[in-house]
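Input/output pair, single chain:
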Amino acid sequence: MDYNFIVLEGGDGTGKSTQARRLKAYIESVGKEVVLTREPGGTPGAEEIRSLLLTGDKDKLVPESDLLLFYAARMDHVKQLILPSLKEGKVVITDRFDLSTWAFQAEPNRDLHELFQYLHKLVTKELRSTWKRRSKGILLDVSLEVASERMDARFEELDRMENVVGGVIKQRRKAYLQKASELFPYYEIIDATPDEDTVFQSIRTALSK
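Output:
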């Protein structure tokens, strides 16, 4: 596996956080140093923004503010953690990145598409120019029914982004799949419906290509 920057994406209930932890342990077992991080978050400043974004009423911020805050957190994350870790030769695994911002914030609002593209290019410029060939995105995908069953079984209070109706979840899934298909082969789509071990083997296979 020659990838240094690995992004695990997917809607809620796809099991990406579990798979991110498994992938970290696996890569460490073959002698590589791994940084496991998440978005929004990953640095002290970005974690403060995460708290602001994920708590409170879902309509407390206008869409433009939401998007700008996500990218403020990402800029801090990229500059302070991701790029320094990559330059030190570490493997970075992040639980969510730009695909989630597209599916959750930008795609549903056409007025944000141009702003999204501008911010994406600005914040990820060095990542794209230096590390693109050693980056891989994995989109874990499940049906609305499977996602709902798994979320119901978590017994956790839903955050501001998770507390949505089924129609919104379907819309996000469609946005994820369309964008990941456009970005193939950088992003690969994996069916996350099977058991945890089967999904993990599919991830390993994708990363071995």
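The chain has a mean pLDDT of 92. The radius of gyration is 16 Å.
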